[in-house]
DNA sequence: CCTTGATTTCACGATTTTTTTATAAAAGTA
DNA sequence: TACTTTTATAAAAAAATCGTGAAATCAAGG
């Protein structure tokens, strides 16, 4: 799952009301949502949709959550998918059973949307700053620091807005490599955003204005690259 | 604790769900597990069970974790037992308080089993426990003192309410590092509190009002950071 | 129960960032 | 050179984000 890509959530519940509430809240938070109304459909949808998280009701017609969970865990592509059980209190399956079949977490109904949202986003939060990917790139006379969102150019500190910073960071991370505009959009803006490719030009220009002309070069007809040498 | 023998863990929490999750995961990792649902029972069980590690919820009916910890520390046979506090949010009892009563570590809920397991096994790897918690941060012209919840700014003493203090303390502890609102909420408010991300803004403003504008800077679209010179 | 202060929510406007649009300049091609 | 294509630049439009004041809620202490 790339940084910019929406996190995909599959909601599985036979209660249309609950599905709708969850779907609405998840979409509002920027998640991409798919739904299924029973276990059998859930497996089918999960295979196609490749969700990052599955919210799985335990009590369902046709095929219950536990059995569904087991089946999903068989699918190699969904090995790293988080499965969260939704369960009413005192339902017949104990929590232990839930974990036995490979659930990662479970939440008891009634569901409080705010709580659920924060629980899900916690799943994808960086564990700690320390074990984070390297945050500093030193290239030429620039030090590009993702931790503080600043550029240090031989002593001077330059601050860039988010998009400009990420553009420079991305190019600097892959020096001497040419990226087309679409490629840059996809990697920095994300795959589901619709902006014109010309937008990249404007950002490039702003970055050049701020750090100087000697770093990013244009390859006509192809794209841009961070220039070494 | 001997090499061959299973490491014994006592889990103390009033939430049966949490007890079950922990128990399940610990047993899977090969630990021997006992449980207790409140502080009083915990002391009793600990005496009999002689655990090597105690996972101790702070908030409990009857007798809270801090008091329980104190009592356990009185028992000579349990002098070498590791005690790990489980706490929902940082604020409940400051870390300092926890370490003061003899805790060896603490983790915030929600508990991520994998992280907990590695933390436990780490306890037995390193003998040197209790890495001392610093209680004072000196940064720029500020002295931020956790013990008294005050800031000293070149002679003047400023007192901040808890949340504002924690916020400043956290940022100052990680200077120059940008934290998103969610990240700050998670680290300062805790993971089981659901407040809007914009709440952070208001607290930031209050801190700025009180200590001045030259410390915390905004990175638009990203978050806040404590700014070094 | 009342008061006070802390915390959280809300709404609006100001500001900045991001995107679009239009035009000029540059580069490539025949 | 004339023509086409592509990029740079400037300026306008749109969108997002943040700061602020104020109200609402919550908590602690008297």
From TrEMBL, chains A, B:
Key word Phosphoprotein present: yes
4-aspartylphosphate modified-residue sites: 57
DNA-binding region, residues: 134-228
SMART domains: REC (SM00448), Trans_reg_C (SM00862)
Domain of life: Bacteria
Ranges of residues in domain OmpR/PhoB-type: 134-228
Keywords: DNA-binding, Phosphoprotein, Transcription, Transcription regulation, Two-component regulatory system
Record-linked InterPro entries: CheY-like_superfamily, OmpR/PhoB-type_DNA-bd, Sig_transdc_resp-reg_C-effctor, Sig_transdc_resp-reg_receiver, WalR-like, WH-like_DNA-bd_sf
SUPFAM superfamilies, sorted: C-terminal effector domain of the bipartite response regulators (SSF46894), CheY-like (SSF52172)
Domain Response regulatory positions: 8-124
Protein name, as recorded: Response regulator transcription factor
Species of the source: Algoriphagus oliviformis
